[in-house]
Amino acid sequence: MLISQMFKRKPCVFSIECFPPKQSVNFANMQNTLRTMKDLHPDYISVTYGAGGSAGGVSTVEVTKFLKNDLGIEPLAHILCMGSDRQKAAALLNELDEAGVRNVLTLRGDRTPTRPESPDFRHASDLAAFVWQTKPEFDIHAACYPEGHPEAATLAQDVENLRYKQQAGASHLLTQLFFDNGKFYRFLNLARRAGITLPVSAGVMPIVRRTQIERTVALSSASLPSAFTRMISRWQDDPESLRKAGIEYAVNQLRDLIEGGADGVHLYAMNDAGVAAAVYDGIRDLLGD
Ligand code: FAD
């Protein structure tokens, strides 16, 4: 099913993000994780970009195929401008099409030393326009940033730039993770005033391990409300309590977002089925499951 249809049928669409394993020997483990996540009734599962192949990892296409054909869960495949061009993108879209995967999240991609810039797609909106042109039957999705993309001069400018994604055929926007719901509501208000009419899913990541604080939180450039920093300082040396508190924080954030009328909520579950299940337990009554 096209994900855009889900927003017409449900008050709040629930989705989960996973990433392909870096080594193919770990694919069996991941398949078990995804089987467990099926019990959480996600409307779709998004799969971050991974090329697989010579790097030894599992590709996004392989994971989306497994979700679609073995588990019957609708996948959303992340596809990137970086490292791609028209020819490569067309080949990837054909591969997804053959697997029955028609939902794609068009992204520029993170800049890394090993990823060349694309000669054909400067921004996600260029890739979105290409998908729209070559595969009009596909459903196109794109990213947005409640606190502004780090490269944008201002939040207002970044919101204005979302118009390019909307004009290029995107049907839905998915946010970067954030810890302060106030930032999300403010962003949504700005986006609606700027003429962005697409449904927006709010992305939340439960912080359950100290390593996540050092890596993910620092890299995301999300602002940290005092309730969050208090939780971290209190429990960072007590792994079990941190896990419990991190799940509780995410559940409170998600409950507020669902009750606040978010079109969708997206769980950055970091391939941890246990954490995803605990969070789902805390919100399932609001999802109508
Ligand atoms: P763009 O839309 O190109 O935006 C980048 C900057 O350009 C912004 O400042 C924007 O305001 C501006 N801009 C946008 N369009 C235009 C335009 N047409 N003209 C002028 N300026 C413009 N990275 C990965 O490598 N792999 C993944 O799987 C992945 N998944 C992600 C999933 C989500 C939900 C999110 C939020 C991010 C993800 N990322 C992923 C990270 C993402 O690729 C980076 O944040 C990247 O820096 C920007 O991607 P974008 O698609 O928003 O880029």
Rg (CA only): 18 Å
What portion of the residues fall into strands of 2 or more residues? 5-15%
Shape: globular
Name the bound molecules.
Answer: flavin-adenine dinucleotide
Structural class: alpha/beta
Distance between the termini: 19 Å
Helix coverage percent of residues? Answer: 40-55%
Give the H and E element order. Answer: HEHEHEHEHEHEHEHHHEH
Strands, count: 8
Q: Within the largest sheet, what's the order of strands?
A: 1-2-3-4-5-6-7-8
Explain the layout of strands and helices.
Blueprint: H1 3-9, E1 13-18, H2 27-38, E2 44-47, H3 60-71, E3 75-80, H4 86-98, E4 103-107, H5 124-134, E5 139-144, H6 155-167, E6 170-175, H7 181-193, E7 200-204, H8 210-220, H9 226-235, H10 239-259, E8 264-268, H11 273-287
Parallel strand pairs: 1-2, 1-8, 2-3, 3-4, 4-5, 5-6, 6-7, 7-8
Helix pairs in contact: 2-3, 4-5, 5-6, 9-10, 10-11
The structure holds flavin-adenine dinucleotide.
